[in-house]
Amino acid sequence: MAGHLWKEQTAKQEEGKVQPQRGAGLKRSSAVLESLLKLIDESYSRKAWHGPNLRGSLRGVSARDAARRPARGRHNIWEITVHCAYWKYVVRRRILNERRGSFPLAGSNWFHRPERLTEEAWKDDLRLLERCHKEMIEAVRSLAPSALSRTPRGSKVSTEAILRGIASHDVYHAGQIQLLKRLTR
Fold first, then answer.
1. Is residue 7 part of a domain?
2. How many structural domains comprise the chain?
3. Residues whose CB falls within 8 Å of the CB of residue 50, separated by 6 or more in sequence, listed in order
């Protein structure tokens, strides 16, 4: 049901003029959850109208290019990649109501990279991003649709807002990586 029609129907139900349809809220929540999963996939790895997604922006980037800084004190592509992995971990942890402390690297949010400037170290961090994304998607798929309206512990916003946010986060950093690639080549 279109958003304005849904609001109108809900208002009539609250006034007692119309009986709520059985399962209508569940159908809407299920549809929203599926839509969020598609949005997250597009922002990370599926073809999207806006151009490269996060994984696409990293395709073909060498360790040397990933380590290049645009200026002193600024983040490089490698650090942005690990930062994205970290926030996928945070999203998974929040929506599953897990405690902190299971991210494979010490620290939080931003991690100085590279520790070793090798292709293998770069590939390890790309695999970390992929693993964190897959684990986050598994967690999202395990959610009951009703969980979307709840605010997880440690968050100020609903699960639905967190999931929209991680998709936006991926697209934002994909654009940033595209710009950094142009600046450093």
1. no
2. 1
3. 171
pLDDT at position 6, please?
43
Residue whose tokens read 């990279």: 113
Question: Is 22 inside a domain boundary?
Answer: no
Going by C-alpha positions, the residue among 125, 47, 132, 114 that lies closest to residue 75 is 114
Q: Which CATH number fits the domain that encloses residue 83?
A: 1.20.120.450
Q: What is the pTM of this model?
A: 0.83
User: What's the token pair of residue 59?
Assistant: 């395709």
Residue 134 lies in a domain: yes
Nearest to 150 by CA among 59, 56, 41, 33: 33
Q: Are 65 and 185 in contact (CB under 8 A)?
A: yes
Residue with tokens 């070793």: 116
Q: What is the mean pLDDT of residues 25-52?
A: 86
Cα–Cα dist 63/123, whole Å: 8
Is the CB of residue 176 less than 8 Å from the CB of residue 80? yes
Q: Which domain holds residue 73?
A: 34-184
CB 114 within 8 A of CB 82: no
